[in-house]
Design a protein that fits this description.
Helices cover 31% and strands 38% of the residues. It has 150 residues and is an alpha+beta fold. It has one domain: 2-Layer Sandwich (Alpha-D-Glucose-1,6-Bisphosphate, Chain A, domain 4), CATH 3.30.530.20. A hairpin with a 7-residue loop joins β2 and β3. It holds the Pfam family Polyketide_cyc2. This is SRPBCC domain-containing protein. InterPro entries: Polyketide_cyclase/dehydratase (IPR019587).
Length: 150
Amino acid sequence: MKPIHSETVLQTTRERVWELLSDFALYPQWNPLFPKFAGPGTVGGAHELVVHLPGIDPFAVQATLVTIGGGVLSWRSTFGGRFFLSWTFSCSLELVDHERLKVRLESEFCGMLAPLFRFALARSMAEGMEQLNQALRRWGEKGNVRCMRC
């Protein structure tokens, strides 16, 4: 099924945005789409993820971290097994030049129930991904990640 995706270019370094994305303890302070991502932070580890889509009350899902490193962060959540429904969310960073970075967000539903979930959540997911892009711009370009830890 066709993924929902969003891209933005930021005036910042890859290291600055990666530090923000990979420190899950900071998510409640800046991430409007995923205000909580708790767990061991290791690939294959089970994590509790709170999702806050615009127009929908926040809800929690169990997610497995699939990739963390090399400028890619992704996780997968399954409901009733991958045959019925799985949801994969990923964020990848691509260097455009020394001080410009392309951020690509992608959300994909797979399985028997995927068309229903994509239809029901596509608009909210696209809006939420745009909010996440704006937050990355605000904190990655202008904010001071280290101050968030003070």
